[in-house]
Structures
1.
Amino acid sequence: MGDMENQEALASLEILMSEFFAPTTSNLRKREIENMLENFSNRQDSWKHCLLFLQKSQNQYVLMFTLTTLENIINKQWISLPDNLKTEIRLTLWNELMSKHEVMIYFIRNKVAALIVSIARYDWPHLYPDFFSNIVELIKCDGRQCLLGLILAQAASEELGAARDTGVLLPSSRRNQLERLMLKGMPHMLAALNTILEKNAQNEGQSNPPPSPTNGIPQTSVLPDLLANAQDVHNFDKALNMEIVVKCLTTLQHLFSWLPLSSHVPPSWLQLFSTGAV
């Protein structure tokens, strides 16, 4: 398909999805649209269009339909796809996540992250050797990248961390291999998580109420606006840091549901938790 045809296909899909979710659309018409979408999903080349729609569309209905179609391809057809197509799909998902995760709606972001972990279920480490190291490096970053790393880490723990049935047919030998791979990389991940908690504990210990910004001086000129803007930035940073700490703790909670605690809990954490620093 040429660029014009791709744009027309995307525009048609956006119209269909908006119509489907409109409150005035009849059930009969919804069934017709469902059949049209199902026929599209079953096409052999649907993945190509999905990757294009993922990159070009900002319509949340289109994005969820696209990601759901890709999810079905990963769960049902992945083993039969050529390696070059697997790599193209994975890299497109990863690049979209890295470039847009700060502006993506949270459930779209989380869905893309989950698909990347689903791909690792089949391709790590032979076709996807840097899967785990990419996550650890993100956790070591600041701000939204750190949060993204934590989202991926929890998804990896839920999907790959324990050799159990997750609703996807996978040989037990492969599940055991995935658990061994997770255990092998766990010291690096736990060290990165530990850094987040220790940094938060230090910040909490050092935080003191700021002095009155005016010290009795009448608030004139642009000073109130500057102070308000500074306060907004401070509140945003504080909220993001809290989101990171909470996500770090929920990730650890899931990791500890299957990790051997005796060999994976650093002594420093016992002190952190016992003092109520986190």
2.
Amino acid sequence: MKSSRGDRIFNVCNIVILAVVALISFFPIYYVFVVSFTDPTEYIQKNLVLFPENWSLASYKYLLSTDAFLNSIGVSTFLAVVGTFVSLLITSTLAYALSRKRFRGRRIILLFILFTILFNPGIIPNYLLVKELGLLNNIWSVILVSLSSGWYVILMKGFFDSIPETLVEAATIDGCNEISAFFKIVLPLSLPAIAAFGLFFAVAYWNQYFNALLYLNDSSKWPIQVLLQNMLIDASTSSLGDVDPLVQPPPSQTLKMAAVIIAITPILLVYPFLQKHFAKGVMIGSIKE
């Protein structure tokens, strides 16, 4: 169909507006990236650098030479890997059990899950629970308070509802029990959903800030986001702990920008590998035929 003059003008205006919005959104990321790679001497002389003449890895080398920064990356990696695995295991098994029509009491459990979605106990009850369990200043406290979500359980249950029960029945006839059928039949068919929810959990655990700040008092157990927050509000490099006094640290601003780039890079690298499963995993199971 031939578009009218009004349609062409409308499309051009849309492209221009969206291009301006994209440029405004991209500029902060570009500035952070450029400053993190700018030579410290050049940054001190200019302060505002958009097109650096000399590129340098000094800020990254300095950060990765500090024990505090490396330790925070290790803590965040542990949270993202172990936390995501445990959360997927708990969420998927609970959702699968609730999708089985022969499971007695599943309606009552669903009501309890819906209750947790509608009514959040709040910070103080959660803190008192963690304290009574003796998990204060324990990295597992951050995982346990974020272990699952009622909303994720409902969505994953909808996905499992879309899998024909005849497949599980056939596996049972062949000698599989419910656990074997779940791991050998249901999970391989659920890879899009597992990938989508795994990305949700991984991003949430990697970006853990408030729960870690609330339950972890030992700075050696801080994840990268808590350390980054302390770096951003501190004009010096004291939050990085003891460093070699003979090494001249780069400007604090370039260190902060380098820390931001390092903090966002893992998720940016993981997302493209899961992107093809992302849309399918989110939408599948949401519409029943």
